[in-house]
Amino acid sequence: MTENILVRNNVNVIGTGAQTIVFAHGFGCDQTMWRYIVPNFIEDYKVVLFDYVGSGQSQINDYDPVKYSDLQGYAQDVLEILDALALKNVIFVGHSVSSMIGLLASIRGGSDYFERIVMIGPSPRYMNDLPEYYGGFEKSDIEELLTMMQLNFIGWASYLAPIVMQNPERKELTEELEQSFCSRDPRIARQFAEVTFLSDCRSILPDATVPTLILQCSQDSIAPVEVGQYLHAHLKNSTLQQMTAKGHYPQLSHPEETTQLIKAYLANM
Among this protein's residues, is 248 annotated catalytic? Predict the structure, then answer.
């Protein structure tokens, strides 16, 4: 069973440190998105990388549309990976939707699994719920995005990639992201997008106890500044750090700043 889980999620473990740090990718990506960050941690940490089922080199035959119809299915997989590797007290670094997946896993599995959580570009709710909450998207925006994915998957990828990368001078990053989007199974990608953009994790925030760093990117079209401020206000033991990095993928566009802020936070553990 352990071997099946590690194969299912294409789990890779590198580094020799006593403390384990887990990097969890966001929607439309895979573990290669961490390649500029990981070399900065392997000397001091044991680094765990994986792909969610349906992403990267995971076992696509293990994709279950019922299990992955909400974020809890992905949170279950995170806990199963930690159990398969016999890991406790890890540092969990989640990008985008993985921030909430990690939070759900920490609540579901108990705080023994997680010592710290680092959230990069997180959002507990992408859809606006005005006047109480601003998430950045109207329901019609999300419906249009999902319809575009269904009707023209390649067109959707080429449309979305430059908007979310937000580094027009770095065309190679936009092209990489577009290719990453396009490499997904369209059916699975669309369901993951629906699960992500229609999720609402606001009600569980008071249940979270693990100390958390929120890395808020500037000019982020997916998770605007108001979202980071909301999370900080509703998450106990949270630290909010505004980044100079633009866009939603600072681990690609600004790996030095991303690394520095994570290390500075962990140095105070």
Answer: yes
DSSP H or E run through 192:
helix 186-197
220 is catalytic: yes
> One of 220, 238, 253, 254 is an active-site residue; which one?
220
Domain boundaries defined on the chain: 2-125+201-266
Q: Which of 25, 58, 238, 248 is catalytic?
A: 248
Catalytic residue chosen out of the listed positions 96, 99, 199, 253: 96
End-to-end CA distance of the chain: 34
| Residues 258/157, Cβ–Cβ less than 8 Å | no
Pairing of strands 90-95, 45-49: unpaired
pTM reported for the whole predicted model: 0.95
Amino acid at 178: E
Q: Percentage of the chain with pLDDT > 90?
A: 79
pLDDT tens readout for residues 182-207: 788 889 999 999 999 999 999 999 99
The CA-atom distances, in angstroms, between 197 and each of 60, 123, 138, 253 are 22, 10, 11, 23
> Is residue 55 flagged as an active site residue?
no
- In angstroms, the CA 247 to CA 11 distance is 27
- Contact by Cβ (8 Å): 59, 53: yes
- To which CATH superfamily is domain 2-125+201-266 assigned? Alpha/Beta hydrolase fold, catalytic domain (3.40.50.1820)
Which residues face 95 on adjacent strands? 120
